[in-house]
Design goal:
The structure is a single chain. The chain has about 190 residues and is mainly β. It has a domain at about 5-115: OB fold (Dihydrolipoamide Acetyltransferase, E2P). Helix content is about 5%, strand content about 35%. It has helices spanning about 60-70, 120; strands at about 5-10, 15-20, 25-40, 45-60, 75-85, 95-100, 105. Strands 1-3-4-6-5 form a 5-stranded mixed barrel. A hairpin with a 4-residue loop joins β3 (about 25-40) and β4 (about 45-60). The longest helix is centred in the N-terminal third of the chain and has 8 residues, at about 60-70. The chain is globular. GO terms for molecular function: single-stranded DNA binding. InterPro entries: NA-bd_OB-fold (IPR012340), Primosome_PriB/ssb (IPR000424). Pfam families: SSB.
Length: about 190
């Protein structure tokens, strides 16, 4: 099966949620990205359309994302995406765009960060199974068939939750103590029911 990979630059719209599933730990967060364009009429930048998706981080991304990504943080996420449809408890059909992240990082054009190696934190660096300190299971061809998309225990978004963007000013500081550059407020469009 072919997968469509995307790179999305935006702001984290909620506090990342870390949970255990039968397939392993996962950290999920909503990512909002709003197009910007220059208006000759107003002589200023304007917001265009917005894209919101759920980013699921598995395996080696779990610890880094859980420790380094906060609500409002400007991030760059890369991975395969899909549109998942589900039915709410009230019988309404909904759909959500999801990314199974291969890589997530802070957007250093919009914030400052301090690098802390896993070895300095007491963790391990690299991949013990392959002996390659830089290898990941995905680089060795494993992990893509694990079915992380449909992992039992993964939960649907709660339609009552406000998936909207960062309600704060986006100036949440990363855990390193280095303040982030304030992020633009992103807004999620209202859901239209068919």
């Amino acid at each position: 099966m072919f997968e469509t990979y995307m790179t999305v630059i935006g702001n984290v719209a909620n506090k990342p949620d870390r949970r255990d599933t039968p397939a392993g730990q996962v950290v999920s967060f909503r990512l909002g990205s709003t197009a910007r364009y220059w208006s000759e009429e107003d002589k200023r930048w304007r917001d265009g359309s917005s894209l919101f998706l759920t980013v699921n981080c598995w395996r080696r991304l779990v610890n880094g994302v859980a420790l380094g990504v906060v609500k409002g943080a400007p991030v760059i996420a890369h991975g395969p995406v899909r549109l998942r449809e589900y039915t709410t408890a009230e019988g309404q059909r909904r759909s959500v765009m999801e990314m199974r992240a291969v890589s997530v990082g802070l957007d250093l054009a919009r914030c400052l960060a301090e690098r802390v190696d896993q070895q300095r934190r007491g963790g391990t660096s690299g991949d013990a199974e392959s002996g390659d300190p830089g290898a990941t299971s995905d680089q060795r061809g494993e992990g893509e068939q694990r079915g992380d998309w449909d992992a039992e225990g993964a939960r649907d978004p709660d339609p009552r939750e406000e998936p909207g963007a960062a309600e704060d000013s986006g100036d949440a500081a990363p855990r390193s103590g280095v303040p982030a550059v304030p992020a633009r407020e992103a807004r999620e469009p209202e859901t239209v029911q068919a």
